[in-house]
Structures are given as C-alpha cells and as structure tokens.
Amino acid sequence: MGWIGDTVDSVKSIQIRQLLTQAVSLGSDDTEKGLLQLGIAVLLRICGVLRHLLLIPGMIVTSALIIWKALMCITGSESPVVVVLSGSMEPGFKRGDILFLHMSKDPIRTGEIVVFNVDGREIPIVHRVIKVHERQDTGEVDVLTKGDNNYGDDRLLYAQGQLWLQRHHIMGRAVGFLPYVGWVTIIMTEKPIIKVWFLLYSYWRIGIACYNFKGLMAETKFKICNVVVSARCLAHFAIHFVRWTKERVFT
Predict the structure, then answer these.
(1) If you compute the radius of gyration of the chain from its CA atoms, what whole number of angstroms results?
(2) What highest taxon heads this organism's lineage (predicted)?
(3) Catalytic residue from among 77, 97, 154, 169
(4) Annotated catalytic, 236?
(5) Catalytic annotation, pick one of 77, 88, 97, 169
(6) Nearest-angstrom CA–CA distance, 41 and 60
C-alpha cells in the first residue's frame, strides 16, 4: 500500500514538474498561463492533503460526541464515565479506576456509592452515602457522604454552611468499574507535555491511515476496472464465437 501511495505522489510530482518546465520554456504570455496552471495544481494538491487531514479527525470527534450524548440519554447521567482521582475509596476503588454511572428516579439509599458535584469545585467526587435525611415539608431526600478510606464525613468538602447534599448535586450511582484504565487520563492531565505528544502522534497516525486508505481505494478502483475490461472482452469473444458457430452450422 505504501508503494501505491508513493506512485500516486510521484505522478503528481511529475505533473507539477512538467507544468513548471512548460512554463519556463514558453513565451512571456504563455509563461504567465503556465505559472497560473502550476499555481492552481499546487493549490489543489495542498487542498487535497488538508481535506484528508481535517475531515477524518473531525469525523472522529463528531462520532465521539454522538456516542457520549447517547450514553447520557441511556444512563440518565450528565457524566456516564468518570475517573477515580484519589485513594479516598480504597480498597474498593483505587486511583485510576474508571467508574460507570447510572442515574434513575429511585431514591438514594444508605450504602450506595455516588458521584457528586460540590458548589465551587470543578472536579466531581466519588464517595459512599452514610446517612439519608428526608425533609418533612417537601419530602425531598438529602444525603451525607464519606470516603471509605477517610476518617470523617464530607461536610468539610461541601460548600461553606452546607451540611447535606441535595439530589441536584448527585451525578449518578456507580454501577460498574474498570480498573487502572483511567491512568491514561491522569497522566495526560498531570503531564501536559505527554498529552501534546499523544495528540501529535494520534494526528500523525490518522494522516497515515488516510494516506493508506486513499491508496487502497485507488488500487480497488484499478482492480475493478480490470475486471470490467476482462468481462467486456469475454462478452465480445462469446458473441463472436456464437456468430461463428451459427455461420458454420447453417453453411
């Protein structure tokens, strides 16, 4: 496949070199036309490369967003997947584990593991519900949480003056986990240079994949053309053979 791509590029380079040679060898008026054709050819080639380099990553990002929105609708959670960033839930969940969340209309019970947001904090927290308090006036349920590996409850983590979590603070219940996979996210967050290198490498690999796919399509098109030509030749041979047979029989 690499040979096919190199061949295609070499053909394009030959065409550009031919246009340049023609532009130099012609007269003044024709030289301007030749240089214009050369500029158009170079511009079209650059646009073709940029199209492949920008279209495929855009499709990947769009597909990821669609999948994420679909998961949000299915799970009922604004963040269906979260990464454990601390050891406050050890030994159950360790740093780097990925949690899968689900949020239903069922009331939250003591002992459930929930992921919640705190006013003034950007990063969600995953802890266990240790107390449930039902309001007599509204019937709404407030909860108090605590990390399994912490000594005290989470009231020191809540906003100033807040003693309980309301339902709108809860992002979802933990219904499953995948160990250690979230370390990729942690490393890229704590080491930005690794994130940059990872993005550059991914972009480079996408470019190679686009290049190879383009060569594969060209090779497939070439094979299809050969098959069509062979089929047409075979059909012509069959027609002539039938005509020759009829002439021999009737004569």
Answers:
(1) 33
(2) Eukaryota
(3) 154
(4) no
(5) 88
(6) 29
Contact between 182 and 97 under an 8 Å Cβ cutoff? The reply is yes
123 with 68, same domain?
no
85 and 178, same domain (yes or no): yes
Residue-wise DSSP of 168-228: GGEEEEEEEEESSTTHHHHHHHH-HHHHHHHHHHHHHHHHHHHHHHHHHHHHHHHHHHHHH
CA distances from 170 to 105, 114, 160, 167, 174 (A): 12, 7, 18, 5, 11
Top-confidence residue, 110 or 207: 110
- For tokens 């007269």, the residue is 27
Query: What does the pLDDT average to over 166-173?
Result: 90
Tokens matching residue 201: 């490498």
Q: Which of 174, 89, 82, 160 is nearest to 118 (CA)?
A: 160
Which residues does 120 contact at the CB level (< 8 Å), separation at least 6? 159
Shared domain for 102 and 169, answered yes or no, is: yes
Is there a catalytic annotation at residue 6?
Answer: no
Domain boundary (145, 161, 182) is at: 182
Give 212's contacts (C-beta < 8 A, 6+ positions apart): 1, 2, 5
| Among 9, 97, 104, 127, the one annotated catalytic | 127
Domain count, the chain: 2
Domain boundary among 158, 182, 206: 182
User: Catalytic residue at 29?
Assistant: no
Looking at residue 61, its pLDDT comes to 75
Position of tokens 């050369």?
A: 38
Query: Are 46 and 131 in the same domain?
Result: no
